[in-house]
Design goal:
CATH topology of the largest domain: M1 Pyruvate Kinase, Domain 3
Number of helices: 3
Order of helices and strands: EEEEEEEHEEHEEEHEEE
CATH architecture of the largest domain: Beta Barrel
Helix content: 10-25%
Shape: globular
Strand order of the largest sheet: 2-1-10-9-13-12-11-15
CATH class of the largest domain: Mainly Beta
Largest sheet: 8 strands, mixed
């Protein structure tokens, strides 16, 4: 069976909603453009310097694992204008040009009010172009095998939304968990070549329903009991850049 790309996503602000892409141009050694370009540091992130941001562990930021209320928001980001729009229940609740101080302040004020005590003080929206605020210090792309997610339906006895895993590239055509065997191999997607670097261990963020914000599953525990590990999906590094698109075949090559 042909393995192919079913969906492409980026997450312009760490912890906020995904944006679907039809195609994207990848560059060697870089993440998907604008993926996790921004993050919202909570008020307790004293070690983080907003004027000179650098990669920090997710515990410094508002993120779904600890702040499931974020999942009730729908956001869109325009990289040409820098405008971030935030909607809740179909109504726009905030909008600001987050590439500029005034616009960032507007968004920060919204999150201070919306998150309440979870903001732990005054949140700061920060930008880091050179290094995405992902869960890994390396600029990896996250690949999710949809068959692995469907197998979780069987494990937990209900449908599991793939968006719980917040992946960049969703693929289909593999057997469940077969992507875990790709570590150390190279893959060709469209005009780009990627090297699969490591398996993706899953945390409590996957317990949160991405549409309702309800913490309604215990997926890491369920995976540990069913499979003996909590891995779902893999991280990959772009070796040779190029355009990739929905529908592209994924070809596995020999170990590099």
């Amino acid at each position: 069976m042909t393995v192919s790309v079913q969906a492409l996503y980026r997450y312009p602000v760490k912890g906020l909603s995904a944006e679907s892409l039809e195609q994207v141009d990848l560059r060697a050694g870089e993440a998907i453009p604008h993926d996790r370009r921004f993050a919202i540091a909570h008020g307790g992130a004293q070690r983080l310097d907003p004027a000179n941001p650098e990669w920090m562990p997710k515990g410094f930021f508002l993120q779904v694992m600890a702040n499931e209320k974020l999942a009730t928001l729908n956001t869109s980001f325009d990289p040409d204008t820098g405008l971030l729009s935030i909607h809740r229940n179909g109504r726009r609740v905030s909008r600001g040009q987050i590439t500029e101080p005034t616009g960032r302040a507007v968004i920060e004020q919204f999150f201070a009010a919306y998150m309440g005590t979870q903001a732990r003080g005054q949140p700061k929206l920060i930008e880091c172009r050179g290094q995405p605020f992902s869960d890994t210090k390396q600029p990896f792309l996250s690949i999710i095998n949809l068959a692995s997610v469907r197998d979780l339906d069987r494990v937990v006895g209900r449908s599991v939304d793939p968006m719980r895993f917040r992946g960049n590239i969703l693929i289909d055509g593999l057997e469940p968990r077969h992507e875990l065997e790709w570590v150390g191999k190279t893959i060709q997607i469209g005009a780009a070549t990627l090297r699969v670097e490591e398996r993706t261990g899953r945390c409590a963020a996957t317990n949160v329903d991405p549409s309702s914000g309800a913490r309604d599953l215990t997926l890491p525990r369920s995976m540990q009991l069913a499979y003996g590990h909590t891995d779902c999906g893999v991280y990959a590094r772009v070796v040779d850049g190029g355009a990739i698109a929905r529908g592209d075949d994924v070809t596995i090559t020999e170990p590099s």
